[in-house]
Design a protein that fits this description.
single chain, mainly alpha, two-stranded antiparallel ribbon, 2 strands
């Protein structure tokens, strides 16, 4: 009889979980974008951000400002990322 032991899953702590203030105040920082874009939770993060009213900062590699046309554009980018991973339906392009 052979017994196999599953290796315990090591929790992956993303950099934004370790230091969330850096992402909230990061602005359009290229280093933060690079970290976000290489994160395995990027698409899930985009999906969760769309459900969170008033969210701002660096989310899923997209800088989400507080208001205005840049915010509307960033929200469309997040919808597209979430839809790419199957978390939402494809956005309608006007």
């Amino acid at each position: 009889m052979t017994v196999t032991l599953d290796t315990p899953m090591t929790p992956t702590v993303t950099p934004c979980v370790k230091n969330p203030d850096r992402w909230a105040d990061g602005g359009n920082d290229p280093a933060l974008k690079a970290l976000c874009r290489s994160c395995p939770r990027r698409w899930l993060c985009a999906h969760e951000a769309l459900k969170t009213p008033g969210i701002e900062g660096m989310i899923a590699g997209v800088h989400l400002p507080r208001e205005g046309r840049p915010r509307a554009f960033a929200l469309r980018q997040l919808r597209s990322l979430a839809a790419y991973a199957g978390y939402a339906s494809q956005p309608v392009i006007p």
